[in-house]
Design a protein that fits this description.
With 151 residues, the chain is an alpha/beta fold. The chain has one domain. Helix content is 34%, strand content 14%. It contains four helices and five strands; from the N terminus they run βαβαβαβαβ. The longest helix is centred in the middle third of the chain and has 17 residues.
Length: 151
């Protein structure tokens, strides 16, 4: 069992904000689900949720990615304004993408916990391998993030 698993025992004060980031297929959504089970009344926000239609099918449209992230951020703000904990799981490869989330946390006077998920699984959304590789090379670490490598 890797030492990085100790983050799974994280007992943040409520409300809390967990930001789980990493390349597609790194285990972000799975880790978010783990936290959803252990943090009462938490809200899970992902830009990918925007692309799930009424039938529950994932229908990605790259032309709508900005709206997807805006929707995720709005859901995040709504939950935090109600005093709920939030778990965000997005790629957030570049620091500027993460900074938007950190600014929201600051506006609610919440210290975020940042987790870099580093698993190597198949992307559930069938992101092509060359794009995943390019994202991995572009990843910008945050000095306060904790690394997590799932089994």
């Amino acid at each position: 069992m890797p030492a990085s698993l100790s983050i799974l025992s994280l007992q943040p004060s409520l409300p809390c904000l967990l930001i789980i980031r990493g390349i597609p297929g790194s285990g972000k959504s799975t880790l978010a689900q783990h936290y959803m089970e252990s943090i009462p009344n938490a809200v899970h926000c992902e830009a990918d949720h925007y692309f799930i239609n009424k039938q529950g099918q994932y229908c990605y449209d790259g032309r709508k990615i900005k709206r997807a992230h805006e929707s995720c951020q709005l859901n995040m703000r709504n939950a935090l304004s109600q005093g709920k904990s939030v778990i965000v799981s997005n790629t957030s490869i570049r620091l500027w993408e993460l900074t938007v989330l950190l600014d929201i946390a600051e506006s609610y006077d919440i210290t975020p916990h940042i987790i870099h998920c580093r698993g190597q699984f198949t992307s559930t959304h069938n992101v092509p391998a060359d794009i995943v590789a390019r994202m991995a090379l572009s990843y910008e670490a945050h000095p306060a993030e904790t690394c997590y490598i799932p089994d």
